[in-house]
């Protein structure tokens, strides 16, 4: 039994959004994201995994719940080894390996209205990346506005952490990244503005294994669609 699941709360409008997505029609924020739950082995019950619960567990244990820790798992796919497959609803990133296996990493994904799905590629990689908030974030977030020209990499408060993989469609930067985080307790939650975040140890591990040009498949229920490679 998986230690993570979604608690469905899709409305009639959400079901319409799913049908449109299946037809290949780009969506806005029509679908309410499912609530993540984790299995509590002590009580034998599923419990909601929200921001408060996640922070409490991380403060108590100094690590993520086991389900979101890096591990090798069975994984059946026709995609080649080296492909990244992201299950945004379950909050997992899979790096396909030979022999029907994958390395599974826990991730944080876009909050409601910021989710997306499609096929992209790793266009470039950077160590200690500069964080430059997009204009939309600068406009809505005073804390981001002071870094409109870019926050240098290597700072302990840099939101991208120690590594970043920049996601492209063709030769165009999507503005989305796979990167580290200064908030490791947010892994397993819908928290970002669309980027995929890993804890810093995991993003370094993934960075060292992934090549520029690697195919990235992002799956997320009811999200806006990118049509890429």
UniProtKB/TrEMBL annotation:
Keywords: Cell shape, Cell wall biogenesis/degradation, Glycosyltransferase, Hydrolase, Peptidoglycan synthesis, Signal, Transferase. It comes from the Bacteria. Residues 82-219 form the L,D-TPase catalytic domain. Residues 1-34 form the signal peptide. InterPro entries: LD-transpeptidase, LD_TPept_cat_dom, Transpep_catalytic_dom. Pfam families: YkuD (PF03734). SUPFAM superfamilies: L,D-transpeptidase catalytic domain-like. The active site is at 179 (proton donor/acceptor), 195 (nucleophile). Pathway: Cell wall biogenesis; peptidoglycan biosynthesis. Belongs to the YkuD family. This is L,D-transpeptidase.
